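Regression test case RT-17, inverse folding.

Input:
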């Protein structure tokens, strides 16, 4: 029995285990990317201050052929936390009295987001002195 085949197979294994420059470059880039993400997440966790939802409402008339007294409503959450079950109320006022009220519920308003919906009135808002929209309530998850 000769030892040459065993020495040859050991040499082949050693050459197969050597990494070329491309493998090292990909490894280094991947390591750098993972470390950068971990540092960023640590920084955001450390610097983020506790905040509450900060909700406000924008609205505009948006009539359609089948809903002539429809309003488009946007709820913005500029705060640092999510709000759930956001209740929005729109009221038509005439002569200091409530002419009609419409309500809308938004299930989920994440931080720094905008959610949209529509409310429908049965009476013409043009007959009202003013239209007022406000957030009535919300929950924190």
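Golden output:
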């Amino acid at each position: 029995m000769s030892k040459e085949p065993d020495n040859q197979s050991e040499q082949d294994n050693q050459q197969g285990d050597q990494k070329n420059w491309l493998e090292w470059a990909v490894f280094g880039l991947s390591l750098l990317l993972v470390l950068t993400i971990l540092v960023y997440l640590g920084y955001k966790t450390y610097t983020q201050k506790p905040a509450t939802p900060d909700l406000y409402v924008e609205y505009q008339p948006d009539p359609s052929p089948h809903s002539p007294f429809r309003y488009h409503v946007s709820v913005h959450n500029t705060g640092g936390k999510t709000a759930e079950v956001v209740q929005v109320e729109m009221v038509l006022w005439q002569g200091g009295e409530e002419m009609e009220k419409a309500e809308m519920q938004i299930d989920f308003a994440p931080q720094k987001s905008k959610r949209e919906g529509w409310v429908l009135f049965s009476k013409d808002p043009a007959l009202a002195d003013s239209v007022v929209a406000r957030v009535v309530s919300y929950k924190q998850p």
